[in-house]
Every structure is written in C-alpha cells, then in structure tokens.
Amino acid sequence: MFRLVNLEKKFGNLEVLKSISMFIDYGEVVCIIGPSGSGKSTFLRCLNLLEIPTSGRIYYSGAILDPDLDCKKLRREVGMVFQKFNLFPMFNVLKNITYAPMRINKMKEEDAKELAMDLLAKVGLADKANEYPSKLSGGQQQRVAIARALAMKPKMLLFDEPTSALDPELVGDVLEVMKQLATEGMTMAVVTHEMGFAREVADRVIFMDKGYIVEEGTPEKIFSNPENQRTKEFLARVI
Amino acid sequence: MTLHFAKAAELLIPSLFHGFGVVIQATVLGFLLATILGMIIAIGRLSTIKIVRGILYLYLELIRGTPLLVQLVYIYYVVPLLLNLIASMFGFKTNIQIASVTAGILGLGINYGCYMSEVVRAAILSIDKGQTEAALVLGFGKYEALFRIVMPQALRSIIPSLGNYLVMMVKDTSLLAYVAVNELLLRTQNFASQTFLTIESYTFLAIAYLVISIPLSYFVKFIEYRLKDK
Ligand SMILES: Nc1ncnc2c1ncn2[C@@H]1O[C@H](COP(=O)(O)OP(=O)(O)OP(=O)(O)O)[C@@H](O)[C@H]1O
Ligand SMILES: [Mg+2]
Q: How many CA atoms lie within 13 A of A41 on its CB side?
C-alpha cells in the first residue's frame, strides 16, 4: 500500500528522518516504537503529507506521490488519529463525525447521520451523540475521533500515540476499539508506547532511533529476541 | 452672560439628528471595510509566501505610524491631486475628486483595518494547530480548514475586541469634520460660530456622542457576556 524509498526530513539543519525505506501492505498493522524525539511522529506525518519530506520517494497504491497534487485525495483515503484527539469543540459529537462526509463526500444528511450512529455504536458511545466534546472523558473523545476518521471510509488509519494523553484506566477502551479494527482487516500504522498492544496486535513492529529504522520484524522477534543493542536497551527500559 | 440652552436646543438638535445619520453611515460602512481589510491582512500575514508578508508588514507600519487625521486629509485632498497628476502625465486632462463622505469611510476603514488585523491574527494564532491538522487529515483544504474550522473558533475572541473598535470608530467620526463631512462636530462648529452659543452648542455635541456611545458600549459588553457564557 505504502512504499518509502530513502525518505529524509529536515527541519532547518536538524535531520529528523534519515534514509527511511520501508513498506506497509494492505491489511497490515504496523506498530512504531522508539524513544522520544526519534522521529516517530514525523515519520507518520510524512505518510499523509502533513510533513513534506525533504527528499526521497513515497509510493502509494503503486504510484509515486506528488505532495503538490495528491494531498487531499491521499488524506481522504488515509485517516489520522492524534494524541490530543483534536475534536472540533464547536460541534457536537454527531456533527464532528458527519461534517467531513457531508462536506467532502457529499453524503446526504440522513445517510451521514446513520453512518455516524453506526460508528458511535461500534466505539460504544451511541448515547453520547448529542454531547459536546468538552463534556466527554479523554477516552471517550478519542473513540469519537476514531469514529470521525472512520466516517470517511479510509483504506488506512494512522495513529500517533492515541492513548498517551489518557488516564491509565481509560486506555483499555481505546485499545479495545483499535484491536477490533485490526481484526476487521483495517490497515493501520500505530506509533505507541503500549508494548502490550504492539505485541498482541501488530503484524510487524518497527523500532526507530535517532531518525533511523534500527530494527523491524514480527512482535515475537522484536520483543523476545531483538538483535540490535539499542533495541535491547530501549526495551529493557520500557518493559 | 446668560445661557440659552432652550434656544440652542431648538435650533441645533434637529441638525444633530441629521448628523446622526451621517455618523451611522460612516461608521457602518467604515467598520465593514475595516473588518474586511482586517481579515484579508490577517490571513495575508499568515501566508507562507514571504513577499506577501513583507508587503503587508510595511503597509501596517505605514498606516500605524501616521495619525488618522493625516490619513483622512491625505485621502481627501492629496490622493485626487496625485491621480490627476498621473493622468496628466499620460496626456489626459481629468478632474478627479473624492466625495468627502467617501474619503471619510476610506480613511476609517483603512486605519481601523490595520488594528483589527492584529486582533484577527492573534485570535487565529491562539487556536490550537491541531484543529487545522484535524481538518486537513479529513481531506479539507487549507482555506476550508481556516474558514470552516479555525475562524468560527477565533471569532469568539475577535468579536468583543471588534465591538470596542466599533465604539471608538463612532467617536472618531468627529475627525471627518476636517474633510468637510457634515457630521456632528462640523454642524456644531457652524452653529456655534453663527450664534455665539458656544457653551450650549458644544455641551449638546458632547451629549450627542454620549447618547450613541454609552448604549453601544453596553451592547458590546452584553454580546461579550453572552459569548463567554457558552
Ligand atoms: N515542526 C518542527 N520543527 C522543528 N523541529 C521539529 C518539528 N517537529 C519535530 N521536530 C523535531 O524533530 C525531532 C523528532 O520529533 P518527533 O516528534 O518526530 O519525535 P517522536 O519520536 O514522535 O517523539 P515523541 O515520542 O516525543 O512524540 C525532535 O527533535 C523534534 O524536536
Ligand atoms: Mg511523537
């Protein structure tokens, strides 16, 4: 689905991504782990062109991406969920979800509402449709944000530390929703500090450090039998 | 010396009522122009194009570095002369003039537009970048994100400040007297110089401004209160 070739990203003189080459297949769940500042967010944000790579190529469903031309189309197919949810505070939950499908996909209001209610049921928040985001807990807001992304019927979802801003007791509900998406076959790239989730759900785990992909492989390999010294040190610290 | 408030009231107040019409016209149109310019300048200054930002920065320095009164006089007297001069260089003989009310509205709009652009800009910048990004990743364009998602949130902090500028602008319409707009001050000056009822006339003039500005500022406070409520 995605293939990156020698991707690099600099902010001024700061090299944040250095020669990243990798791929993501349809239906795959890829978890990206690594220390703070290693470039995980930047990497994820290059996939939907929120950051424009300084050099390198991105292929998306077989064709090379042109940042000037393909932004909108790409983003309609590749949704994103943020650490801080970023729900629209002036809209209620229902409108947060129906807004983009109606505006962008020209979906009819009844259809969009029906879709939104289905998605809310799926994330376990059918009774919150008319609440405003500020009245919801962090975990509930994040599940609404997932529903909002799903309403665009994306082919893939990017998650940037979706549970890092949550109280520990609220993390489980969000991870549960993500697990379900994974079993339904959604393609997902997840930056996370939840090693349990990565081990259980990921098809592949990528360890990033200092702008490089240091090691990648199945969860068993990365967590039980890491080859690289830096991966070992990182895992020893976080687990 | 005796004061003749009754006589002054009888003759001046009807004239001031006509002046109200001029003040309202100049304020409404001037404010509209200022708001539009303020939005455009604010958005331009957030542009990614460096030249656009540079030009707007210079423009703001120019306008904010000169007094409104000088700008009014410049627009009314100097700009038509310049236009005629330029036309004559191309061999045309013209007699371009700017109506005094038009000059007044332009001056107020251009001057206030600069100050309002700062308010709009600060309000846009105060909205979390995550809001724009959330809109972008759903497939909205840059300007759709700005106008549909960021602006509506920024308006909450913009509206109260704009209200204060509105009250200030009403009072600043008195400067239009210097470009021959027949507003409250000019009417009062003429009346006072003909009748020598100086104390009475200018007292009524002051009261006339209070009659507009006090209710207006309470109205602005009320709107501000309503916005805070939500
Ligand atoms: N817009 C930006 N401008 C300048 N530097 C940036 C920008 N975004 C990120 N950086 C820098 O790039 C580096 C990598 O940041 P990034 O957010 O990708 O790391 P991360 O792995 O996601 O870290 P964390 O786990 O803390 O989220 C950091 O040094 C950061 O300061
Ligand atoms: Mg990050």
A: 12
Residue recorded with tokens 């000059």 = B103
Indicate the residue of A50, A72, A90 with minimum beta-carbon distance to B141.
Answer: A72
- pLDDT digit string, tens, across residues A64-108: 998 888 888 999 999 999 999 999 999 999 999 999 999 999 999
Residue A2: C-alpha distances to residues A24, A44, A74 (Å): 5, 12, 11
Nearest-Cα residue of chain A relative to residue B129: A86
Pairwise CB contact (< 8 Å): A103 & B149: no
Task: List pocket residues of ligand 1, CB cut-off 6 Å.
Answer: A 11, 14, 16, 34, 36-42
CB contact under 8 A, B139 and A89: no
Average pLDDT over residues B83-92: 93
Is the Cβ pair B139, A76 closer than 8 Å?
A: yes
B172-222 per-position pLDDT tens digit? 999 999 999 999 999 999 999 999 999 999 999 999 999 999 999 999 999
d(CA A140, CA A133): 9
Residues of chain B neighbouring A48 (CB-CB closer than 8 A): 137
State the nearest Cα–Cα gap between A145 and chain B, in angstroms.
9
On the question of pLDDT at B230 being above 80, the answer is: no
- Contact of A104 with chain B, judged by CB distance below 8 Å, is answered with yes
Which amino acid is located at B70 in the chain?
V
Closest CA to A18 of A35, A42, A34, A51: A42
Separation of alpha carbons A88 and A99, rounded Å: 10
Q: What is the predicted pLDDT for the residue at B229? A: 64
Which two structure tokens, joined as six digits, stand for A123? 């994330």
Phi-psi group of A185: left, alpha or beta (phi > 0 → left; psi -120 to 50 → alpha; rest → beta): left
B155 in contact with A at a CB cutoff of 8 Å?
A: no
ipTM of the complex: 0.93
Measured CA to CA in angstroms, residue B173 lies from A24, A152, B101, B113, B115 at distances of: 65, 52, 10, 15, 16
